[in-house]
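Section 5: illustrative case.
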């Protein structure tokens, strides 16, 4: 039994880390705002997004594993630079803004328990993450990222610490509740954007390649040697990662709905507001409010340490593949200066964003929406590559994979179009 569990966890890697990184500070802020604003009305999104998120990420992982190259390298080879350049530029912009918002959220959350000031905390987190990502070996760093996943547990535990109205929760989980005004479509786009995110596409594909390098998988004709067992493990890793992501999403929305919305808190303006959702976890202890802030701060910091390297790393992989830089976290700085230079630049620009007067909590939600917009053209291109037999051979997408990816593309595309139309034409009644 123990040996089977050990083997199971050993096979988890890029998929698990990517799934956990999906519930980053921007995800926590977006899902918390969703629950606070709409109560149980958006709980269904977690269940309905799971198969489509898993489908898109499985395609990305499969592309990386079969070709031995990341998403950007495959786009460049198949479609050329004219298609690649705008997609990578959009990714770089979205990731840099996301990094800035996440750094700001980490500093704001840490400020709840450490009275050191926003600027020193933001500088400290940026420095620590850069040092870890640049000077730690991939073997060690991947393990750090893997164990950072445990910071997500606070919200699922809190779900069962609260007296939940299960008779309402269960129908809300399985039955969609739809509305078609700007507020609803904005949040839907944000939820979709922070769940099916561009940085996840590039990161998971590139991490599959990193794992192959780490495990010294034999290459024949420039491509990794893989078999059906390898692919089964890849899909299991991916599904477990995406399932953990959606359990986190569902838990955060539910906790925010039952703790915040039910008590009249419908707009999360500060980190302290978001932290109140975790008070039931410690309500039997003295100073429950402060303890909730501590748990919230630890969670945000832990997920920041997990997600920011993923954001910076995915941007670096994309740019490096675009311009043929040497790339990979398995390489030392002096062997891949361009790759690490992108990581440093995106982190520093993200840091600077925090000094232009943007509210970190609101920035997180807007970042999720930006990710949703950027994801649409990227999913289209990924769907085309994943279905290309000349690239993936017998591992090209089948009927189920195609259905999931194209449905995700159409669903997210319609959400973005609906949001933009409702913004431009606020009086428009779509339904």
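Designed sequence:
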């Amino acid at each position: 039994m123990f040996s089977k569990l050990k083997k199971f966890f050993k096979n988890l890697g890029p998929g698990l880390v990517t799934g956990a990184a999906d519930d980053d500070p921007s995800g926590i802020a977006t899902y918390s705002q969703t629950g606070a604003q709409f109560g149980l009305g958006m709980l269904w999104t977690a269940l309905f997004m799971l198969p489509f998120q898993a489908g898109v990420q499985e395609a990305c992982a499969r592309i990386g594993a079969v070709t031995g190259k990341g998403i950007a390298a495959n786009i460049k080879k198949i479609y050329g630079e004219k298609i690649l350049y705008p997609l990578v530029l959009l990714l770089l912009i979205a990731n840099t803004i996301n990094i800035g918002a996440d750094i700001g959220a980490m500093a704001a959350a840490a400020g709840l328990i450490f009275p050191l000031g926003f600027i020193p905390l933001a500088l400290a987190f940026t420095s620590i993450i850069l040092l870890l990502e640049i000077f730690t070996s991939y073997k060690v760093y991947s393990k750090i990222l893997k164990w950072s996943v445990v910071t997500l547990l606070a919200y699922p535990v809190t779900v069962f610490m609260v007296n939940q109205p299960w008779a309402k929760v269960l129908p809300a989980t399985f039955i969609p509740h739809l509305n078609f005004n700007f507020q609803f479509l904005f949040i839907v786009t944000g939820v979709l954007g922070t769940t099916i995110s561009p940085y996840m596409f590039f990161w998971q594909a590139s991490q599959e390649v990193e794992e192959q390098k780490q495990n010294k998988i034999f290459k024949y004709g420039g491509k990794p040697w893989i078999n059906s067992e390898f692919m089964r493990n890849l899909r299991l890793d991916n599904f477990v990662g995406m399932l953990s992501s959606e359990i986190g999403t569902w838990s955060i929305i539910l906790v925010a709905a039952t703790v915040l919305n039910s008590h009249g808190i419908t707009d999360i303006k500060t980190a302290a507001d978001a932290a109140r959702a975790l008070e039931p976890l410690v309500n039997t202890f003295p100073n429950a409010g402060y303890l909730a802030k501590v748990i919230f701060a630890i969670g945000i910091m832990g997920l920041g340490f997990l997600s920011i390297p993923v954001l910076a790393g995915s941007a670096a992989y994309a740019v490096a593949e675009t311009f043929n830089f040497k790339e990979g976290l398995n390489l030392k700085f002096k062997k891949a200066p361009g790759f690490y230079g992108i990581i440093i630049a995106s982190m520093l620009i993200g840091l600077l964003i925090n000094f232009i007067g943007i509210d970190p909590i609101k920035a997180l939600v807007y970042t999720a929406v930006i990710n949703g917009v950027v994801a649409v053209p990227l999913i289209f291109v990924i769907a085309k590559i994943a279905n290309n037999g000349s690239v993936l051979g017998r591992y090209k997408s089948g009927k189920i994979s195609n259905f999931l990816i194209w449905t995700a593309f159409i669903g997210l595309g319609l959400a973005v179009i609906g949001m933009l139309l409702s913004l431009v034409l606020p009086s428009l009644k779509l339904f």
